[in-house]
Amino acid sequence: MTIYSFYIFDRHCSCIYSREYTHTTPGNGRTNVNNESDVAKLLFGTLYSLKTLSLKLDDSQSLNSLRSFSTGAYRVHFFESLSNFKFVLITDLAVETLQTQLQQLYGVVFVNNVIMNALSPVEFGSAKITNDSFVRLADNFLRLLPVFE
Amino acid sequence: MGYNIGMRLIEEFLAKTGAQRCESFRETADMISKVGFKMFLNTVPQIENFSSDGTSFSLILTENPLAEFVELPLTQYPKIHKELWYSQLYCGVLRGALQMVQLDTDVYFVRDSIRGDDKTEIRLKLNKVLKDEIPAGED
């Protein structure tokens, strides 16, 4: 089981954080290099459309949300806060669900280190999350999950 | 005033309560008074005067932590009693917080007991429910 990468999108559809994890080389992976790339844009587009379409299939209008989708090679885990921050984790197929973990990541790590941090903006514009304590704690949080290998 | 506080406050609120989306504005009203005010100010304002179309209501603050030890000075300037809303901060906070959960609202004071009115009343009016933004250049 593996986590490949992690993205955060804000309310204005821009990618404010991207993180790739390497598992073979001893390096740490890369932070915030993919924000403007097609990968991030396509990922956002896919999730956005999938979310809209899949909610239309269910006409009960009750509380419903997109959680994940998978292909033959990977699974994409999705959590959206009510304030429209989107958290996306890409893992391999063996990882079944990460909903509670994503919620914790939002509620504990993100809110405490980005939102409650007076030096960090809440409207990012074209800025990204470069806040060291967030990067460190988010990394720690994900690395300590049993699914991260 | 207070808008930026509201923008951040709502995230803390969502993280701590794990609240789900409200299905009606009435439910939102309950959430604001019974959960939001309770959590941040430890007071539960009453909800009154819901308009018939369900898009506006008043919060009646029985106690106001912001103005607990406050008296407006008696001066020669009558403006202080006519134009100053001492607890205006609430309006911005509520508007900012609701905006972040896609509710575009107007929030304003109607009465304030430190001005000598009988109650402290904040009016909330829902303008519209905002849609998700879509990326620039796409339809």
Account of the protein in words:
The complex is a heterodimer of chains A (149) and B (139). With 149 residues, chain A is of the alpha+beta class. Chain A has one domain: 2-Layer Sandwich (Beta-Lactamase), CATH 3.30.450.70. Helices cover 33% and strands 19% of the residues of chain A. Chain A is built from three helices and five strands; from the N terminus they run ββαβββαα. Chain A has a five-stranded antiparallel sheet. In chain A, α2 (99-115) runs antiparallel to α3 (132-143). The radius of gyration of chain A is 15 Å and the shape is globular. The N and C termini of chain A lie close together (6 Å). With 139 residues, chain B is an alpha+beta fold. Chain B has one domain: Trafficking protein particle complex subunit 3 (Muramoyl-pentapeptide Carboxypeptidase, domain 2, 2-Layer Sandwich), CATH 3.30.1380. A four-stranded antiparallel sheet of chain B has the order 1-2-4-3, covered by helices on one side. In chain B, β1 (46-48) and β2 form a beta hairpin. In chain B, α1 crosses α4 (89-100). The longest helix of chain B has 17 residues, at 25-41. Chain A: Its main location: endoplasmic reticulum. Chain A: One of its GO terms (biological process) is endoplasmic reticulum to Golgi vesicle-mediated transport. Chain A: It is found in: Endoplasmic reticulum; Golgi apparatus, cis-Golgi network.
List the helices and strands and how they pair.
The complex is a heterodimer of chains A (149) and B (139).
Chain A: E1 3-9, E2 15-20, H1 38-57, E3 68-70, E4 75-80, E5 86-91, H2 99-115, H3 132-143
Antiparallel strand pairs in A: 1-2, 1-5, 3-4, 4-5
Chain B: H1 3-17, H2 25-41, E1 46-48, E2 56-61, H3 79-83, H4 89-100, E3 103-111, E4 120-129
Antiparallel strand pairs in B: 1-2, 2-4, 3-4
Helix pairs in contact in B: 1-4
What share of residues of chain A is helical? 25-40%
CATH architecture of chain B: 2-Layer Sandwich
In total, the number of domains of chain A comes to: 1
- The end-to-end span of chain B amounts to 34 Å
Please tell me what the overall shape of chain B is.
globular
Strand order of the largest sheet of chain B: 1-2-4-3
Count of distinct strands of chain A? 5
